[in-house]
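[retry 2/3] Insulinase family protein: previous attempt timed out, resubmitting with same input.
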Amino acid sequence: MKHFLPLFCLAFSLHAGAADTSPAPSVDGGATSQKVEQFTLDNGLQVLVLPDRRAPTAVHMLWLRTGAMDEVDGRSGLAHMLEHMLFKGSKALPPGEFSRRVAALGGQENAFTSRDYTGYYQQVPAHRLPEVMQLEAERFAHNQWPDEEFVKELEVVKEERRMRTEDNPRAMLMEQLYATMFSAHPYRRPIVGWMSDLQAMRPDDARSFYRDWYAPNNAAVVVAGDVDAQQVKTWAQQYYGPMAARALPERKPRTEPQQLGIKRISVKQPAEQAYVALAWKVPALRRVTDMTADDKDALALLVLSAVLDGYDGARLERHLVQTRLADSAGSGADVLGRGPGAFLLIGTPAKGQTPAALEAGLRAEIERIARDGVDAAELQRVKTQWQAGQVYARDSIMGQAQNAGSNWVLGLPVQADDLLLEQVQSVTAADVQSVARRFFGEDGLTVATLIPQPRAGAHGAAAGVPSPVSHEVK
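[retry 2/3] Insulinase family protein: success.
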């Protein structure tokens, strides 16, 4: 679907692709809650099971509540690098053996790293689930590899940075935007790491990060598919239970200081078109029941983003793209994370238009809502589309597992999607207008503008098109 993805994807979706044309279910009908069985092993490991008997397949995911935000200056990129190294062996698995065995089971596997978490997943025939659980538990508990494997993989990660970021003008702009927007919080550092930090990275840096954060009391196993919950619990106890809990490093508060004025940067890169990104610091959503004022504001900001860019023909498309001020425009409320929230507006100026004109046009859309509000039909369409996305997400057992795992990482109830869907129905036009009025002043704004430069000879990945890699950086 183009716009309405599972709720935690919706939080920051700068949209692209074909539109969804499936009929949306009625909001009055309600979404059917997905049954989740949850267990806690003696070592603190959380086990979440989502039975779904529609197909003889199972998804197994291991989530770690650690990501790029747990790194320190000078060691950026460690969480992502360690994700790569989990594929390089254990006491019982030589480098590459894990992937070979998963393939032999008829399965697929990969991994991902974000600012907030690291995850590993496999999808296998359901009767192969205990074998893949044993494999994952082995590398989780006993990850080890020779230094030469680290040196080789580090070159892979450096090339990934070159292809996905340094050869991608818009990715470079977004990297610089976050580095400028945040001064104290670790969200300012790129997930893949600064190149100088990668060049200085050593094998023992990754081993130290592994010892610090890869503990069962900092992890959750999520299983979805054609499974029996009690049987999964038995297997989890068998394979993950022997791991010992460990004390985790103290997580120091790294509060972002108040921004005292607009920040502007220009990013010069070889590109065909200019690009503009505007970002404001906004409240993050921490709770889905007994919500605080900040939580309610974060929810209203999610709805505001959907009003701007949540469906075909939404405001940014009607007022900026169809009027030929922009070739593309999008919004995102990045309010679901362990760190501070942000609200982004982005766009590509149309031919003959300047970045300054597009910036003014993007800001005018917020000002229009702050002044005139949103109408009831517009708000109802957003809510209906949101519910449709929630229903469609359950068609995928991978989507079910991803939602449950990301909810756990953020310290939310496993079924936070259902609870948030209920909360969304209570958001009023006045709530949306209120956040539009309160959070979009200049003092909290950061603006990044891509200034196209001539291309010199052959170039890497095209702007906006990520190169394929073995693992994912979210």
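[retry 2/3] Insulinase family protein: The domain at 37-239 is CATH 3.30.830.10 (Cytochrome Bc1 Complex; Chain A, domain 1).
[retry 2/3] clearing retry counter.
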